[in-house]
Amino acid sequence: MVVFANDVFPRKIPLIITTSDVLLPGVTVKIPITESRNVNMVRSQLLGSNSSPNPIIGIVPKQAEDSSEAVTIDKDTVGVIGQVFHISRTSWPKPTFMVLVSGLCRFRVDKLIMEEPYLVAIATQLDGFGDESGEEISKTDPTAQEFRDVAAKLFAKLTTSYSHITDKMSHILDLMPLSRLADFCCSYSSATYAEKLDVLNTVDVAERLKKVIPIMQRFIQELDKSGLNDRRLMPFKTSNSKLTRMKPLEMGTFSEEGDDLSDLIKRAKDLSVPAHVSKVLNRELQRLKRMGSFHPEHSIIRTYVELLMDLPWNVSAIETLDIHKARKDLDDDHFAMTSVKRRILEFLAVRQLNKSKKGPILCLVGPPGVGKTSIAKSIAKTTGRPFHCISLGGTYNQSDIRGHRKTYLGAMPGRIIQALKTTGVNNPVLLLDEVDKVGSGAHGSVAAALLEVLDSAQNSHFTDHYVNLHFDLSQVMFLATANNANVIPAPLLDRMEIIKLNGYTEEEKLQIAQKHLLPKQLREHGLENSGLQVPESCIIEIIRNYTQEAGVRSLERHLGALCRHRVVKLVENQSDNSAQNTLAPVTLDETCLIDILGPPPFGDFELWRRAGIPGVALGLSWTEYGGRVLIIETTRLNRSSQGSLVLTGHLGDVMKESASLAVDWLRSVAKQYGLNSSDPLSDADLHIHFPAGAISKDGPSAGIAIATALYSLFTNRPIANGVVMTGEITLSGAVLPVGGVKEKVLAAHRACLKKVILPQKNYSDLADIPESTKNDLEFSLVTEMSEVLQAAFDGMTESDSSVMLNNMKSNDSPLLCKL
Ligand SMILES: Nc1ncnc2c1ncn2[C@@H]1O[C@H](COP(=O)(O)OP(=O)(O)OP(=O)(O)O)[C@@H](O)[C@H]1O
To answer: SS3 for 265?
Structure first.
């Protein structure tokens, strides 16, 4: 109900700009609010704490329908004063409001007094609220009579179809003032945007009637031709209220919702979907049809229906399985990785022979940057299936996989369904990236949700909570990647076949850089013909002193940095001298590297400075990022009381146990090895430290290195140059095998060490190590501590050791720097 003081509307009025249709007085419409100033206006004026129950706003149409220019409001622009009856909002996919508003009368903008955050104008009312007392045209005027005749003809046409509104039609014709009737007929006939704008701008009633007559006549002809009644003419009511001669019509709308819905229905008819889907689709479309777009649930149901229609229930990519092509593709895209490629070819060959056979789910496990994701992409490429990567790192909610139930606010389908929608086929290659990083929280375990997805016996009936219909995932080729297989939950691990990718040797990295990474970076930076040469020596320098990684990602980044530097030079050259578009070819050297990349962050100076001191040994550790050289420092602090063992460096329980074992082994052999005291801890504190305390360390494999460091401390003999060791120690001094040998040996090679002491039982692991690496290293395979000591001190007599110590004291640069 409009309540204005003295029936005059307020002079200062907030505005909404409409772009899709023109509201005329006497008509009620829903206006979608998307433009930012309109949204601000609704938030502040209609939803604010001070807003009145049925606020009054001004509605101004854009002045040209097709104009793409930003909407501006000038002085004298004509609009319609409207009363807001209802506001609904949706927050998904983006925040939008829908405002139900009833047009009351025309107004003219005198002055804009605010433009941001929303528009406010000082306005003047142009016509009355549609009561007959203010009518400016007499009923006997010829134009008025002609108008009434044509309107009667139009109404007669309509009432023949809408028998239930016959009474109301005649009521309108009799009671509604002509000025208002003109607006009404124009709105509900087939007037164009420009015609409606023209009628809005025509304040003079006689003029307005003249303009609406041809519109109605054309509409009558259209109805005659089509034989149908226009759907836009909806049932309506009248009211005798003082100010609102017309009550809101039942939902005319600006948006082309009706058209959209019929498009949706038509699309649903043409779709080929399984019976259980088509049943739900039809049911939901019927609901949509019944509820109208103003219903709060409308957009939720519509989004759901659209998802059902977008999902590739019966659409498959044509698989191209050709083992020769697959071999070529894999070799073209990746250097080395022989065993991985072999396993993938076996996998593809089995599929080629028997397409219905459900192969295992391959899980590629290895340190970062060794090509897990890129080999998965190659598999997709060679099989002709679309590829999609689902990154699972940090996923703690099982709804991410299975979706949210539709009843939740902002519910969404899970990542599997979203991936299928994105790829548009039901047999893509889906890569579950970082499957070892999934977690579990208050909303269930992600691993448990993945079990269903990966189980070939169950996944033909995979049901996402949002979709709530089973989707057949049996055609999807799932691959997974992980950095550390040990932390993958056992039931999940059980469903996958692990393929290990190890770190690369220096030689392999060089080949990968020359054959793949550098050409790729040059291509991506548009430098193919720019004359940039990165010689082998530079790449080796980057590998050795600028990166310390098992994979090649950091190497690729550094090559990218070289390319970017060249691009800057090229662009600068172009702007300095527009005629010259090229630079002279350049071959980088190590000095250029320092200029471009800065001083090398790595190098093994630290190792060399520490090794060679009595009580310091080098061990090897395995991490999910590749192998690492581990420094073990020991020292003895004289105390008068009974000594104690102090361990520092962020150690796990197993590593602490290893240290105690090593100390006790040393106690037990003190006499045999002629140590000064029969109990090294009798009058001293012993401190064993593992530098880099921020990194947690655990496992038994540092046992022999700790024992050797202690032996070195108590005999005051430094361990021989470039010796590194790994192996578990027992109390009796036996050496047990350890894991991750390949990664550890590669780390020793990267650090330019000379000799690796390994447990004898790890002999078979040496087969995995590339020949070129093996040729650079000396291996000592040992079964007990006496052999470890023999190899670690390398036949050095005590006098050799003291010469070495003296050298170290007199010369600041350590001996091992020469390695
Ligand atoms: N053997 C190889 N031959 C050619 N390029 C390689 C090889 N290995 C890795 N690369 C390249 O190294 C880059 C990093 O590889 P990718 O992203 O596949 O690593 P990833 O193992 O998946 O790492 P993360 O575990 O961090 O996801 C890519 O550009 C990839 O093409």
So the answer is: helix
**Number of the ligand 1 atom closest to the C-alpha atom of 508:** 1
pLDDT of residue 788: 92
Residues of the chain below pLDDT 50: 1-7, 228-258, 579, 800-801, 803-805, 807-819
Evaluate: CB of 555 within 6 angstroms of ligand 1: no
439 is in an annotated binding site: no
Q: Is the separation of the CB atoms in 293 and 96 below 8 Å? A: no
What 8-state DSSP symbol labels residue 404? -
Establish whether residue 118 lines the binding site of ligand 1, counting it when its CB lies within 6 angstroms of any ligand atom. no
Report the alpha-carbon distance of residue 123 to residue 784 in Å, rounded: 98
Q: Determine which residue's CA is closest to atom 9 belonging to ligand 1.
A: 371
Q: Please give, one letter per residue, the 3-state secondary structure of 473-485.
A: CCCCEEEEEECCH
**Cβ(183)–Cβ(60) under 8 Å?**
no
**Active-site position among 211, 742, 744, 755:** 744
| CA of 376, closest atom in ligand 1 | 18
pLDDT value at position 420?
94
Kindly give the pairing relationship between strand 361-365 and strand 477-482: parallel
State residue 581 phi and psi, 5-degree precision: -100, 0
Contact yes or no for 151/214 (Cβ under 8 A): no
pLDDT at 171: 65
Per the annotation, the verdict on 744 as an active-site residue is yes
What pLDDT score was predicted for residue 256?
A: 41
Of the residues 701, 712, 755, 801, only one is catalytic, namely 701
The predicted pLDDT at position 253 comes to: 38
Helix (H) or strand (E) holding 452: helix 446-454
Instruction: Note whether ipTM > 0.95 here.
Output: yes
How many Å apart are CA 818 and CA 722, to the nearest integer? 10
CA of 435 to the centre of ligand 1 (A): 17
433, 434, 552, 557, best to mutate for ligand 1 pocket (most atoms within 8 Å of CB)? 552
pLDDT given for residue 607 in this prediction: 59
Structure tokens given for 54: 């049925």
What is the widest separation between alpha-carbon atoms in the chain?
133
Pocket test of ligand 1: the residue of 329, 370, 563 to mutate, having most ligand atoms within 8 Å of its CB, is 370
Distance from the Cα of residue 125 to its chain's centroid: 53
515 C-beta closer than 6 A to ligand 1: no
Is residue 444 annotated as involved in ligand binding? Answer: no
SS3 breakdown of the chain: % helix, strand, coil, rounded to 5? 45, 20, 40
Residue type for position 514: Q
Burial group, residue 369, by CB count within 10 angstroms (0-12, 13-18, 19+)? buried
Kind of pairing between the strands at 616-623 and 626-638: antiparallel
pLDDT at 250: 35
Tell me how far the alpha carbon of residue 553 lies from the centroid of ligand 1, in angstroms: 7
pLDDT at 582: 60
441 is in an annotated binding site: no
262 flagged as catalytic: no
Which pLDDT value is given to residue 71?
Answer: 63
**424 is an annotated ligand-binding site residue:** no
The pair of three-digit structure tokens given for residue 90, joined into one six-digit string:
């949706």
List alpha helices for 11-101, DSSP H: 36-41
Helices 298-310 and 415-423, packing angle to 10 deg: 60
